[in-house]
Amino acid sequence: MESISKEMFQPAQKTTNAEAIVRPSLNYWADAWRRLRKNKLAMGGLIILVILFLLAIIGPMLTPFSYATQHLKETNLAPSSKYWLGTDDFGRDMWARIWWGTRISLFIGLVAAALDLVVGVLYGSISAYFGGKVDAFMQRFIEIIYSIPYLLIAILLMMVLGSGVTSIILAYAITGWVTMARLVRGQMLVLKEQEFVLAARSLGAKSWRIIAKHLIPNVLGVVVVQITFVVPTAIFVEAFLSFIGLGVKPPLASLGNLLNDGAGVMRYHPHRLLFPTVIFSLILLSFNLLGDGLRDALDPKMRK
Amino acid sequence: MLTYTLRRLLYMVITLWIIVSLTFFLMKLLPGDPFGEAITKLPPESMQILIKQYGLDRPVWEQYLTYMGHVLQGDLGVSYQYPTRSVVNVIQTAFPASFELGIESLIIALIVGLFLGIVAALKHNKAGDYTASIVALIGISIPSFVIGPLLSYYIGVKLRLLPAGLWLGPEYRILPALALSLGTIAILTRMMRASMLEVMNQDFIKTAKSKGLSRKTIVGKHMIRNAILPVVTILGPIAVNVLTGTLVVEKIFSVPGLGNQFATSVLSNDYTLITGLTLFYAGVLVVVMFLTDIAYNLIDPRIRLGKGK
Amino acid sequence: MSKPILEVDNLQVSFKMSAGEVQAVRGVSFTLNKGEVLAIVGESGCGKSVTAQTIMRLVPTPPSYIKNGSVMFDGKHDITKLSESDMEKLRGQEMGMIFQDPMTSLNPTMTIGEQIMEGVRKHQGSSKEKARERAIELLNLVGMSNPVERLSQYPHELSGGMRQRVMIAISLACNPKLLIADEPTTALDVTIQAQIMDLLKDIQEKTGTSIILITHDLGVVAEMAQRVIVMYAGKVIEQGTLNEIFYDPRHPYTWGLLRSVPRLDSDSNSDLASIPGTPPDLFAPPKGCAFAARCPYAMKVCLEKDPEHFTASDTHSAACWLQHPDAPKVERPIEVGVRSNG
């Protein structure tokens, strides 16, 4: 046995505090953001979305042509230095039309998501908060709405309301809020029963404080994630309806009717299908990537 | 289980009733002329006869009751567009193609989607996983009405590998079924992957391993069997997806199915045909949802035997 | 005594995580003799479960890997070097395992019968009828009523205690030489705990199988173990016979563990002692003794050097600098040394 100096057997000066918590604690959102930033796919999605949003705003201003002006002598041109993405069969500039279409599609997605958020969160919270018979009734109602195929209802509504941005948003929102309401209710019901709510209550926290400090922040994660899936769904619905001839009417452009027009002439002018397809798919892809990343980042079970 | 089935059956009936009523009243609010521009040029007397014949002069509630009565008897009325054909007749002619397309897509989607999901989970964080995840992401980001024209153009027109449209022989089925199944493949892959990953971390997998079972047995008997259960719950919505998808895919590939009928009836404001087709679709979808729901409950012993959950 | 059934030598197991390497087991050595019941005690996260699961190679690889050391089973198989297909032959056949939570350890979509018969059929190649007979026999052995009916029941139809009996039946299916029970009673009600422990004791007497009992419940240890290993932060810090650990513990951590057991004979008003602090972060284990930061007797040397094992008897050793001849003599807290349930 190697010798150890007697000095070493003096009581140690404790330099480390065993009770200290090793890692700094971060609040929920800062922690989520830290994890989201590490997720390359989600960040890629976020960056693409920011670029697409910017282009949707400034894109049409970069070209002298308006999305609606017809140049009947210059129809169906391939991309050139004059018309960057070519022209359609009325000689309208495709660059301007595509960014206008993106603007309208994103607008539809965001407004639909906002409606979804308000109706879904309110409905879900009320259902969970009151519980009992109110909850049971509200749940039956949701179950029925949920089992109605929403695209069919959207089609019928579109025919009654007439084509247009407002109709599309309404047609989506009428059935779209159900998923959000279910999620919020489910989450609220679990949270209501959890120990930390009981703990807060037993420590004398008031109801509004429990709701604001404990319930809302915990539901918010789920809601934010759901929003990132609602926006692309609404954009999809717009495109679907436009594709069967019920969407936004020309000369106004939306990604849906650009896709529809492009599909009709793809044999002769493939560029008219290609560009809207790329933008449309990028939007859906980016929202999905961001949504997946957010779900991983915000899921408290994943916290390490 | 029996009370559950009965309850679900009741919901199904209520849902169908709401859909029928909603369809009827929405159609009443619809602007536009049901007889099309050409017929409005008819003399007023002929118009009157036609309106009488279709019952458009009676009070709305009476029309509603008559309509409900007819629907219950399986009579969806006569198409305005083709006055000689009943809606049921139109459905009978057009449905087989839609049905075939739907079923084929569903089968492709199930086989490919489940397989990719299982591979992705077993090869978690390896090349197989990334490949499957990329396929899934593409499938989700590129809906059938985008991939459809692309397939039709590049494979059908440019490469001439397969027919770009129409519905004649077996080779005409491939592209539309592929276009229609891609989105569903994506959903199933993601769902199956997540479900597998969850099951793989369960304690009973360790138990199975501690018994000395081979990897093959563990994957087949313990993992897949349990992981597939939650996937069965979304089979209903998946079938709905595929069936509504036929609406656009049929248009792209000129498939003579219900979707194509739907598009033309939308353009010509053919009230009864639209309502009839919507009802038919809704009916099929609601029944499919009901059946998958019951099937799920039969498969999972925890629910079948009335405990758990 | 005959050849040991299990010899674990300097076993090191680590988990590779994105944030770094977690050294879950940092050089564990012990032996288990035939027919012996050995208890491994320690707080959660001390590496006792990882050690046990490594013996059966049940820890998923990656992220885990065996960094060093060997595990000799039955004097002929080094488990750290066997191929996966050779391991399959050992698992279930030569060694069985009982897990902590019977609620999640059984496959919810398979009947009890199928789950018991699976292992029997795989290892003994027996027919369905034979496997069925064996399953009934096993259910009888673990004290289940109506074994024939049980065969076609699903786990959710049974109570927690019953499910743990089924787990035990599964682990015993092929008469293994080694049974590892990983906290077999932790998830159960107190009354059921006693029944399960009695059952395990009974089975050990009947079959003479060697058992490794992993637990943090010293009451369970006292009831059936012959020898005890105390683990802390991935290392064995003290080992000895049951009497040595209970009557003559040497490591301050063992003292703390013993003091934290509720006792019938103590003053009911006195608080239950606890060990302050938390175990060290195994991403970066401390340089010296892992327990030093929580040890009321810590000396300078404890922060500098990891103590080796000082032997107290042929069977008893403790890894603590207090055992060094030059160390000051420390009075052991007086409560230690009296067993509550004799």
Automatic annotation (TrEMBL), chain A:
Keywords for this protein: Cell membrane, Membrane, Transmembrane, Transmembrane helix, Transport
Gene3D superfamilies the UniProt entry points to: MetI-like (1.10.3720.10)
Highest taxon listed in the record's lineage: Bacteria
Domain ABC transmembrane type-1: 102-291
UniProt membrane topology term: Multi-pass membrane protein
One BP term from GO: transmembrane transport
Database matches in InterPro entries: BP-dependent_transpt_permease, MetI-like, MetI-like_sf, OppC_N
Matches recorded under SUPFAM superfamilies: MetI-like (SSF161098)
Location in or out of the cell: Cell membrane
Any GO CC annotation of this UniProt entry: plasma membrane
Pfam families given in the database record: BPD_transp_1 (PF00528), OppC_N (PF12911)
Residue intervals passing through the bilayer: 41-62, 104-129, 141-161, 167-184, 215-248, 273-294
Family: Belongs to the binding-protein-dependent transport system permease family.
Record protein name field: ABC transporter permease
From TrEMBL, chain B:
Keyword annotations from UniProtKB, A to Z: Cell membrane, Membrane, Transmembrane, Transmembrane helix, Transport
Annotated GO CC locations: plasma membrane
Gene Ontology biological process terms in this record: transmembrane transport
Domain annotation ABC transmembrane type-1: ranges: 95-292
Membrane topology: Multi-pass membrane protein
Classification via Pfam families: BPD_transp_1, BPD_transp_1_N
Transmembrane segments annotated in the record for this chain: 9-27, 101-122, 134-154, 174-192, 227-253, 273-299
Compartments in which it is found: Cell membrane
InterPro entries the record matches: BPD_transp_1_N, MetI-like, MetI-like_sf
Statement: the UniProt record of this protein carries the keyword Transmembrane: yes
Keyword Amino-acid biosynthesis on entry: no
UniProt family annotation: Belongs to the binding-protein-dependent transport system permease family.
Protein's UniProt name: ABC transporter permease
Source organism of the structure: Cohnella pontilimi
TrEMBL record, chain C:
Lineage: Bacteria, Bacillati, Bacillota, Bacilli, Bacillales
Source organism: Cohnella pontilimi
PROSITE patterns reported for this sequence: ABC_TRANSPORTER_1, ABC_TRANSPORTER_2
Compartment(s): Cell membrane
Molecular function as annotated in GO: ATP binding; ATP hydrolysis activity
The keyword Membrane belongs to this UniProt entry's keyword annotation: yes
GO cellular component, one term: plasma membrane
Alphabetical GO biological process terms: peptide transport
Keywords assigned by UniProt, alphabetized: ATP-binding, Cell membrane, Membrane, Nucleotide-binding, Transport
Protein name as catalogued: ABC transporter ATP-binding protein
